[in-house]
Write a structure and sequence with these properties.
about 70 residues; mainly alpha; 3 helices; about 50% helix; elongated
Length: about 70
């Protein structure tokens, strides 16, 4: 009798929505660096492209994206 249990690789195949599917609970991935970078740049533009707050922009972007993952 074939096993009903599928491998994680077969479950992940074709899925690219930031959600890893396995036999256990569904776990969302943390935001990727390029996503944080893109959002930090958007924040920079939103506040008028003024220099000197790159770290603040990065941390805000990271916090926003982590909140969206939860």
């Amino acid at each position: 009798m074939p096993s009903k249990r599928r491998s994680a690789a077969s479950l992940e195949q074709g899925v690219d929505n930031g959600v890893k599917q396995t036999d256990g609970p569904i776990v969302k991935e943390a935001p990727k660096i390029d996503e944080i970078e893109r959002r930090a740049y958007e924040i920079y533009l939103e506040r008028g492209s003024s220099h000197g707050r790159a770290m603040d922009d990065w941390l805000q972007a990271e916090q926003e994206l982590k909140r969206d993952v939860s």
